[in-house]
Write the structure tokens for this entry.
Amino acid sequence: MVNSIKYAAVNIIETLLRGFPIPCKTGLVKIGDPDRKSPVFLTCNYHLTVERVKKCLHGIDCYLLVANSRGINVWCASAGGYFTNHSVISILKTSGIEGLVDHRTVVLPQLAATGVEAGVIQEKTGWKVIWGPVYAKDIPAYVKTKFKKTRAMREVRFPTVQRVEMAVMWAFPFSAVAGLITLTFWRELFLPLTGLIWALPLSIFLSFPLYSKRLNQKKKMTGFNKYTVLFDFSPIPLLLWGVFIGFLTLSSILTNTFTWGYIFRWGLISFIIVLLISIDLMGSTPVYKSGLHEDRFLKVVLDEKRCKGAGFCEQVCPRNCYEVDRNRHIATMPGADRCVQCGACIVQCPFDALYFKSPKDEIIPPETIRRFKLNLIGKRLVKVEGK
Amino acid sequence: MSLYVLMKVLESAPSRYDRGIRILTLGAVDGAYDRLTSQVEKGQRVLDIGCGTGALTLRAAGKGAIVKGIDVNSQMLEIAQTRLDEAGLSQNVRFCEMGVAELGCEQTSCYDVVMSGLCFSELSGDELTYTLKEIKRILKPGGLLLIADEVTPKSVLKRVFNRLIRCPLAAITYLITQTTTHAVKDLAEKIEEAGFLIGSVRLNWLEDFIELTARNPGG
């Protein structure tokens, strides 16, 4: 009982602060009553992730290794260069796990494949990495089927719960700042503004399936500089804004409070909110590449001469872009248009058969991606221009 | 010295790291590094753990030592390499992208000096224990361990004072970079527990920055 209240509280608080990294202690966690043959799972040290993974592992006797990702979630930390080979090597060597189990197999979250190289881990530590499901909730089924991953377990999705989470991630910090300002200077504004700041993101994200097909990845909008675009606007958030203005006008007429100034003020405030939320609408989803990064122009190319059909790409692709032709021993990319340029396939291919190609036919080889990831915060070394 | 939390801002932009650190610490870190490396002698084999942009490495190499610098940040290492080439010291130095967990690959008793500046505070408790154990192994008997790092002050008053200065800075740093530094608690005691003999300890007036030398008694 106490535990479930604590778990709920952690989920609520950390969802409000979803945009900020929340680190927790790294190290070894015992789940249930593990023995020398028990499986070893590994995750990052983002507190919310660790709590959720622990809950999902409940009932399985195993070890959980919490590796340093500077408190950032698995996918973001892997792509940004915070969850790396070094994080994994360090936890395997320093946590004491080697003295507790006889085997040398560790299950990593599939989304870590962008930042962690299975080959390097094996070479440096002797531990074999296998890529578990994308979502921790699939782990019990995965363990039950003797570590066989279904197609569904490999794919990222953007269900309602996660869409609400993303809306909250935007709404809470904005409303907190706006709340402080309005409470200090303009108390009457506090409630309506807070309501607006929550309602707009929620409606934008909840209605996401209605317009997601029309978001255009390749479109180059208003240039911020030549490598980034400021807004990846689709007309839909604007349409929602229009609906809101319509509602505002109608309600003010009905309540006899209509003035142009009133509509103008609220129109401007709500427009700014829509604008802020839309800065990186696609980047807030796991199914599109961020509109703020030039990586979205990259295309994954398969070198058929090098491919041996080993299928690492198929195992790590979170969008199920690949299918291995087991007869011809070669990978195919029937789902190439779903690619979100995470680079996991390129990083993991042991034959270097995959690479990124820019619209200007520049080639970004696997070693560059392995070394610099898709470096979100540091100096971006991979520069690609849109056509 | 509490300004070290701002190091994180600089770390996210490695090319600005050196100049930034110098401004923030008003040259204090330079003094600490100079004093520590004054104990390095010509021809000695030296390991720099968490070398970053090579501040300690270059000083030791300048004294004629043969240095290996390791760090997990490839971009910092690139800058270190450039600085090294500019200083014309490349023949004595080798940089490796490698973390403390890989110290197991180093041969037993092969270094005269192991040094580390502002790196232990980045390690987890498990990592620090492991690192000290490995340093003890790879350091020759009588070999030197040189440390400069952020520590937690011992006296309660200074700890409170330190917190007061540190909190707003940590908050700003966290907002910008979403990371923070963690000062090491009882560093000297941990080094002693790992089997080293403490040679000298020098703390700043706030007791939050330590310069420490220790010796491996061997055995």
Observations:
- Chain A touches chain B at residues 20-21, 25-27, 68, 70-72, 84, 86, 89-90, 92-96, 124, 371-372, 377-379 (CB under 8 Å).
- The longest strand of chain A covers residues 62-67.
- Strands of chain A lie at 27-31, 40-44, 62-67, 105-108, 128-131, 299-302, 323-325, 330-332, 354-357, 363-364.
- Residues 219 and 232 of chain A are 8 Å apart (CA to CA).
